[in-house]
Fold these 4 entries.
Entry 1:
Amino acid sequence: MTRFRTAALLAAAAALTLAGCSSTDTSPTAEPTPPTTTVESLSAPESPAADPATATAAAPTEAKDNPNTCASTELMLTAGQAQGAAGSAIVPLVFTNSGGRTCELHGFPGVSYVAEEHGAEVGAAAARSGEEGPVVQLAPGATASAQVRAIEVANYPAEMCGPTPVAGLRVFPPNSYAPLFLPYPTTGCAMTGPGVFQLEVTTVAAGG
């Protein structure tokens, strides 16, 4: 009888031990699975700038060339009647609209001496003289002009000027990237410096 009770007590104790172990079991399924909404909430919210279309619209744009500007291919360049001045000559640059549409000229031409039509520039380019004028509407066949003042470079010491024969003027119409050539044989200064001025140009104005 005593052995039977001892065996029963041992069996009961074993059962209690097993029950205690099962109540503290930490299997993976016992951990709650994080809800999907919690994971999504950790993601950065989309912003309008992240949208490629929005980003393109917000980006700064480069200024476009004015389609109304007279192209060099629409212009014929000639020299007006030159006039002498103290130590210089005034040469009108006359632009004639040889195209079939009305176009615009606005601002200063770019002017420099060249050794030959397609040759290298000689010395410093023309400095701007005066203020920029209004836009000139140039109808087909109409003219506009700018005044170039060509300094008599013989007035400079040779060692300061570097006198060099030139064939004429390379002229960029305002806001154009293609030059025109105007024959004007003379002498320019190959050397540049703060005390050497050989060309000045005014803004374009209506008429020749």
Entry 2:
Amino acid sequence: MIRSIKMVTLLQTLIAAEQGSFHKAGTLLGIPASTVSRRVRSLEAQLGVKLFDRHRHGIRPTAASNAFFKPIRRILDELNTVLINAKTIARGKTGALNIGLYVSPSSGHLRMAIREYKQAFPSVDVQYVEGERSQLMERLNAGSIDVAIVAGHFRSGMHDVVPLWSEKILVAMVATHPLAEKATLTWDDLRKEHILLGRDPGPELRDHLLSRLNASGDLPAIRHSHIGRDFVLSLLDIESDITLLYEADTGARHPGVIYREMADHDGPSLVPYFACWITSNDNPALQHFLDLLRQHKGPQHQPRRARAG
């Protein structure tokens, strides 16, 4: 039965009930009163229920129609809400955005970009997924995340990629470590050190370190553990090690741990950031986020061409 009843008939019947007159309903809708009356009679015939008592001054809902109109009004209100929500989702003002990260947003441009996006689109449900780069790429390909934010060397492959900002590479150590006396460190300073690296971006930072040392002379003792950055930082005073990390990871403070910048021959050692996503992803919330990320492409740190990972 539901397929044979037109939405316009239900709407005009409800308006007629609210106006108490086919004439008033027709005037409000901009159509002849006879059109409204004819559609109401058609609906009554389909339902087998008399919805109105007609009299010379207008119409009066019957007892049966009152039970009919109440749930119809509720359904139409819910449908209106659905349509409004659909429109806001299409404009990227609501909906969902899933961001994949293996670099912490504890400080720097990434944190600022996410904060600005949340302020601009508070009704978008933003979810975060942390994982190693390979895991993020798998999730991106499967459609379970909308965008991955990665740092270091990146080959685009099947993804769309936008270069973002670049940030400094830092060394973390306990305040009593001998290298703590230097405000800025060179890569040669690390040749005889014990370096503890965790999961991503640990492998990238290792490759970056070895490329800067050119594999000549003494090389540091590098130890890998399948642990996160916070865990690595918490071990530095126990293991007497140092670790490498990106500038974005320095927002979280650890007692007794300090940071020192790494320097190349011509200035701070920098790593570029990228956002990557699947070309066919038409999520409007993603497009707004990408637009905001592009605004953070600042000239403050220009990325180098050297491989970072």
Entry 3:
Amino acid sequence: MTTQFIDNMAVEITGEGEPIVCLHGLGGSSNNWTPVEPALANFQLVRFDLPGSARSSSISAELSIENIAERIILACSKLGITRAHFLGHSLGTIICFQIAATRPQLVKSLALFGPLLCPTEAARPNIRARADKARNEGVKGMQEIADAITAGAISATTRREQPAISALVRESVMRQDAQGYARSCDALANAKAPAVETIECPVLLVTGDQDGVAPPQAVRAIADSIPGSRSVVYAQCGHWTTFERAHDCMRDLKDFYSGRFQ
């Protein structure tokens, strides 16, 4: 494994083969993809810590979906990546959609977990309130945000049967830099849906039946708008798909990249 810093973003690179660019969600890091690594053994994994997140939190500028996408595109260019598979979770899926819609020549396929095009109008005030809490309350605010996410974004089954997953999600969110997290929330709250109907590459969309961020009906609607895409719903699963249902994610990723989903 090698780790580079490009435009203040931490980028981990492992393996050989076709590149898969991995973009985590809000409150996540490159570690979101560790549970599914065995399914990606024949690829080169290029795992970003997004601007404002984890090791890439030292950023003072405002963030938007558009400027994060441009940073990823520029970093790919600096790494010599001209075409890649893109793998995303939550906020990362919005960025993947943005890149696929605006730079289609760069994107060979999309495999997206907990996917959304943008927040609902009802959700935006809550995301802005979360940004303010992180910005104004620092570490204390981040602990309260982490507790709320652990309680609300993980399925009841996972919380009961896999307490280590709850601890992992809580730690991931709680350890984020508060100011960087707030800027990431701002980007999410202001996100606009890209023109995904123009996307022509293979697309896999995966969510959980208890995912309140990317509910199954919304994910199926996205699939209906992208010709040839496929959606999958996991039972008793919340929003942190690769942690909650790693084995199922690996199975479906193997099928997708082998062409059995295409």
Entry 4:
Amino acid sequence: MIAVFLLVVFGVLFGIHFYLWKRLVKDTTRPGRARLIGTLALVAMVLLVVGGLVFGRLMRPDAARWVAWPGYLWLATMFYLLVVLLVLEVPRLVLNLAWVRRRRETEVAPEPALVPAAAESVDPPADPPSALPSPARAPDPSRRLLLARTMAVAAGVTSVVTVGYGVSQAMGPPRIDRVRVPLAKLPRQLDGLRIALVSDIHLGPLLGRSHTRRVVDTINGVGADLVAVVGDLVDGTVAELGEAAEPLADLRARFGSFFVTGNHEYFSGYAEWIAEVDSLGLKVLENQRVEIEGLDLAGVNDVTGEDYEHAPDFGKALGGRDPARPVVLLAHQPVQATEAAKHGVDLQLSGHTHGGQIQPFGALVRLEQPVVSGLGEVDGTKVYVTNGAGFWGPPVRVGAPPQISVVELRSS
């Protein structure tokens, strides 16, 4: 199964690079040194991406970043080159059709040669001149080359500028998103309860201890009553990233800090990370709930845990509780709200989507998740999804800035 998945991934990757070679190298150069250099450059980019994806996971984070940075930056640039060039296929087609039509309209039939009258009486009739194409019908390679180069430059500039902007967003400080959510059952004494919600911190080759420190300082700065970390904290083992996660011990909130697993914890040694996070002072909710002054706060494992004998169990987390109390559920993926709604959850807090991270890629995320960013509703259960404070893959965010959310619960 994994082999088939990798075959599809690399097949798509090679297909995209072949298309880019066609539009950026073959169409813009004549046979010779320039085309050879362009071809070799794209081959190098393919190897760079493959190396980053395959070997990046096998290397220590401090060493992997030297492969990850260029590989992921090219991956983002490749994506935008593909998007822009596909959009430009429309004007390319229109211009080519216009040139063909113009050539046809300007066709001029060859005029018969004038022959002296005297010669007509002596020589036999000459064969009609063959219908040779006029210069107007001959293809114009220079025009096609100019068009290809113009569109290649436009795609290149647009992609580089977009990726540069995206890097500045991804590597910048998380923004604070504040949202008020009314809960009909919320006790009066908890009216105005503020939950600092963060997800997808993604410590790894490109984000380390300084990133964690910035996230912790930002959360402490909002003065929340409760902190919820809803998964995808790491992309690596405790041995590799334990030191980078240590600033989490400095989180401060009146009712404490809580954690649930995300899918990436299962790729990084989830059992060790659960113990590590617990040692840093965060309460790990493994299909559990706690009562906070008349409010039930529950947490379930991520759906990926099904493959690791650590599946989400909504019945265990939510069964046997007092239905008169409101319940807030921490679950990494928004799609888990479908099951949460069956158990009467009032509000689910999630991450996972990154808000789409790189638009227009967010359109594909909407095919899998019911809510991509912000506040929504699934079968009567309110769902709030934060964009996440880090990134996965390319260090690029376009249209979905990094985010720490402050969810304020209101009784009316």
